Amino acid sequence: MKARLISTVLTVLAVTATAACSGGGTSSSSSSAGGKTLTYWASNQGTSLENDKAVLGPELAKFQKQTGVKVNLQVIGWPDLLNKILGATTSGQGPDVLNIGNTWAASLQATGAFMPFDAKALTAIGGQDKFVPASFATGGVAGKPVTSVPLYGLVYGLYYNKKMFADAGLQPPTTWQELQAAAKKLTVPAKNQYGMVLEGASYTESVHFAFIFGRQNGGQPFDAAGKATFTSDGMIAGVKQYVDLMGKDKVVNPSNVQYKNGPEAPGDFAKGKAAMLMSQNNADNTLQADGMKSGEYGVVPIPTPSPLPAGGKDVASFVAGINLSIFKNTKNQDAALKLLKFLTSPEEQTILDKPFTALPVVKGGTVNFTDNKAEADAFAKVLATKAEPLPLVAAESAFETNVGNAVNGLLAQAATGKDVTNADIKAAMQSAQDKMAAAG
Fold first, then answer.
1. Where are the domains of the chain?
2. Is 156-318+390-439 the same fold as 37-154+319-388?
C-alpha cells in the first residue's frame, strides 16, 4: 500500500535493540526439508490480503521449482505489520525474510535484529549496481551496510484533470507559481470545485510534504550530526508553501482538513470536485475504481518555486516504497538470499509491479502498471532524478509523527480562515522539535 501508511513511533526501540542483540532467539522459520523452507512475511500491497496471496503464490511456487526452496507465505496488513516486526525483534521468533516500509529502515536497523548486506551478500542477490540508486539509498543509515534492499517503488506525482485544464485554457504546471495560478483559476466554491485536494488529517501526508517543500526551500529536517533542525528558515518556508494551499491561496476545500488516508481525496479528484491531486503512483487503482479512465488524468512532477530559493533542491518526492530484510538469526541465510535475488530480478519485477501498481527498483525496468506512457515516464523520472530518501536516522519515525501532527494542526487553523504566519509555523515546529529532544 501507499507508503504514507507506514509510520508509527518506535517507542520500544531501546528495548528491542537490547533483546535483538542478545542472540538468544531462534527463527520461527521451519528447517524442514534440510533447511529448504523459508517463512516470508509480505506486506499487503494489493486490494486485499487474499489478492496478495493470489499474486505471490504462483511466483513462490515458481521459485520453489527453480531452487527446491519452499516458502511459507504470510501476508500481513499494514495496521499489524510493524508491531509484529517489533515483537519478533524482541522475542527472536521472526520470519526469515520480510517486507518493511522503507522509511522504517533506519529505525529497524538500530535494533540490531537484521542481517547487514555486506559485499558478499549483495553479490549473492545480484549486486548493488542492479538497483535504482535512489531506491537502494533507503536501505539504512548512510555510511553503514544496509539492512534492507528495495522491492517495490513509489513516488509522488501531481495528478491533474485533463478536461478541467483544457476547458480553462491551462497547461500542466511546471513551476510552483504556475500551480498556484492554475489552482486559483480552477477554484469555484459556488460549484463545489477547487483547484487542489489534500488529506489534511493525515499526519503522514503532512510530514511528507513538509519534507518535500522544505527541501525545495533549502531546508533539511536534521543536520549532519542527526540533530533536529525543524525550525530552520527552509523548513518553515516549506511548511508555509503547503499550508498556504488551504490558507492564503484558498484553493482547497476547508472540509479537506477531515480527510485521512482513505478514498476521500482521490474520490474528490475522480469526481471533478478538485482539479489536482498530489499522490503516489498507486493512486491509479483508487481513481479507476471511482470510474476515472487513465486517459482522463495526466501526471507531472510536483513543481518547485522558480527560481529556487537559496539552497533549494529540485525535489518532487521522497523515495517511498517497500524494502526486503532478512532476520540476522535465520537458519536459512543462503536460501533467504536466493529468495531476495528472485524477487528483485527484472523478470519478477515486471510480473509483480503491475498488480501492485509499483515502480521498478532495478535498472532498466519498465513501468507497466499504466497504459498512459506520459504518466509512466513522469513517475519514472521522479524516482530517477527528483526524489530523496526521508532522513536516514534512527529518530525518523518520531520525526514523522511530531512534524506531521504539527502540520495537521496548522492546516486546521487555516481551514477556519485564520492567517497562518511564519511565526505560527515556527512555534509549531519548535514544539515538535522539543518533543524530539524530550524523547532523547
1. 37-154+319-388, 156-318+390-439
2. yes
Q: Which CATH number fits domain 156-318+390-439: 3.20.110.10, 3.40.640.10, 3.40.630.70, 3.40.190.10?
A: 3.40.190.10
Residue 300 dihedral angles phi and psi, to the nearest 5° = -135, 160
Whether the predicted pLDDT of 133 surpasses 70: yes
Domain 37-154+319-388 matching CATH 3.40.50.10190: the answer reads no
Whole-structure pTM over 0.70, yes or no? yes
Q: 203 or 2: which carries more pLDDT confidence? A: 203
Average pLDDT value for residue range 254-270: 93
Express each pLDDT in 75-120 by its tens digit: 999 878 988 999 999 998 899 999 999 988 998 999 999 999 999 9
Binning pLDDT at 50, 70 and 90, where does residue 46 land?
Answer: confident
